[in-house]
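queue> pop job 88
queue> type: inverse folding (structure -> sequence)
queue> payload:
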């Protein structure tokens, strides 16, 4: 999962890009980067591992001159955590292109071979984003050299990207002497929004992963980019857009609403906050329907994402809502951490129970999801140690049984606690007295009620149905890499068999 932002302004843009990355920090905490373009025709770049505050210390922002620029936040979902894979990535031909990518390609190996053998391009990292950048650069280089900066040249190049690339991709690009190009895959799996801001010098334009970045910077949300759409903002502020990929299915990732997106964002026309409220209502209705004589005394959320659902459940079940855990906000997301022992220790460092809320009670703990189960098991035990009589657990999403291949660094199937287990077995594994999962139709309805035009979602982590399809052997290779703790791919195409 990553965060994107791109701005074309009438004034130096680095500070706004920096502020936008700060408000999108939840989407990527491993690396950050900015690239800007100035009136002298130079690109300026600063990127590195760490949080936004770590990468852009002191006066570093002053180096990033120019009125147009893009920014990126990264969780490594493909490739490695090396600093050279921090984005935006850059190629100098044609023109000079910097790119930030949110998502994941599933045909990277085939593309790597094509780029080396047919396009004569060398890929120097294991990042699928570098592959996406080079595919775009090659497609643009293959266009006839325009006498003017014709946006149709860019749109034709994006059509070439859509023909060749399989997977999820929302991308922002800064192209020297052109402007900012943004595009979204034909399924619209990853989010991307567009907004404007009026100034005395004229309108300014922004694209970002979530609308919360627009709110903070004073931009007005105009709309989401459509699936397969490319939007180009020239350096003079002229905006062009075109659908560059056939939209077979509009299938945004439903897990964005469950967990990743900020509650104050609006994505695909749906308020994230309202969707989580509806998740809580539907989960409470399931309890009333299937467990009408429940003996729940108090409802406690696992901070932070599940608070909204837990509040609605408390209201619907007529039980008190209590804050039962204090969160250390300086510990990263635990389900992404690779080792079980590290995750267990991190849970204890991240959350501390308030004992008064548990002593002698039957407590219902509410979380947004259960991934590996390590976190859930530790939290259940913490509640027992704090004096709870019984500990019930519920998840605002259905059982996660399959890996995510579209940009969320989830474990392989064998590491997922619900894979190959029924609900009672998961309940026993996490040590709860009862476990309640959201039903998938209810989760879909909770999001769909915010925008009835959304008829499909990527629910692959629950169903194993990948909307783009995946190449034969891809999931097995993914599991092998995770088991070994290394990337087993040989990065040198010339050393592979044809």
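queue> result:
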């Amino acid at each position: 999962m990553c965060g994107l932002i791109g701005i074309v302004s009438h004034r130096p843009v680095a500070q706004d890009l920096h502020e936008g990355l700060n408000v999108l920090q939840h989407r990527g905490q491993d690396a950050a980067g900015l690239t800007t373009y100035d009136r002298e025709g130079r690109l300026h770049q600063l990127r590195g591992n760490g949080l936004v505050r770590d990468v852009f210390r002191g006066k570093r922002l002053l180096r990033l001159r120019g009125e147009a620029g893009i920014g990126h936040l990264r969780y490594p979902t493909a490739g490695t955590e090396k600093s050279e894979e921090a984005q935006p990535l850059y190629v100098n031909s044609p023109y000079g292109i910097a790119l930030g990518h949110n998502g994941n390609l599933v045909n990277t190996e085939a593309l790597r071979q094509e780029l080396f053998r047919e396009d004569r391009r060398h890929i120097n990292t294991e990042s699928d984003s570098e592959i996406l950048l080079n595919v775009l650069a090659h497609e643009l280089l293959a266009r006839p050299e325009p006498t003017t900066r014709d946006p149709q040249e860019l749109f034709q190049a994006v059509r070439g990207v859509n023909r060749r690339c399989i997977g999820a991709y929302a991308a922002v690009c800064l192209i020297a002497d052109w402007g900012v190009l943004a595009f979204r895959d034909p399924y619209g799996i990853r989010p991307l929004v567009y907004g404007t801001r009026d100034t005395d010098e004229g309108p300014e334009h922004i694209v970002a992963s979530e609308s919360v970045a627009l709110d903070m910077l004073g931009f007005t949300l105009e709309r989401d980019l459509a699936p397969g759409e490319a939007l180009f903002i020239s350096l003079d502020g002229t905006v062009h857009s075109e659908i560059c990929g056939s939209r077979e299915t509009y299938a945004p990732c439903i897990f964005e609403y469950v967990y990743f997106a900020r509650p104050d964002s609006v994505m695909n026309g749906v308020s994230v906050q309202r969707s989580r409220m509806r998740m809580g209502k539907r989960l409470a209705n399931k309890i009333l329907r299937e467990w009408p004589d429940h003996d729940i005394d108090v409802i406690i959320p696992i901070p932070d994402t599940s608070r909204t659902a837990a509040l609605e459940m408390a209201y619907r079940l007529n039980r008190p809502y209590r804050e039962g855990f204090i969160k250390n906000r300086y510990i990263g997301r635990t389900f992404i951490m690779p080792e079980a022992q590290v995750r267990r220790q991190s849970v204890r460092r991240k959350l501390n129970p308030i004992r008064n809320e548990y002593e002698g009670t039957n407590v219902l703990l509410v979380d947004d999801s259960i991934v590996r189960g390590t976190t859930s098991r530790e939290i259940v035990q913490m509640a027992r140690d704090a004096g709870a009589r019984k500990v019930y657990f519920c998840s605002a999403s259905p059982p996660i049984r399959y890996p995510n291949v579209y940009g969320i660094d989830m474990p392989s199937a064998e590491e997922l606690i619900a894979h190959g287990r029924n609900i009672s077995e998961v309940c026993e594994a996490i040590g709860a007295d009862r476990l309640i999962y959201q039903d998938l139709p209810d989760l879909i309805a909770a999001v769909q009620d915010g925008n009835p035009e959304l008829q499909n979602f990527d629910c692959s982590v629950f169903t194993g149905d990948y909307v783009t399809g995946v190449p034969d052997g891809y999931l097995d290779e993914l599991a092998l890499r995770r088991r070994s703790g290394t990337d087993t791919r040989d990065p040198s195409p010339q050393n592979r068999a044809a």
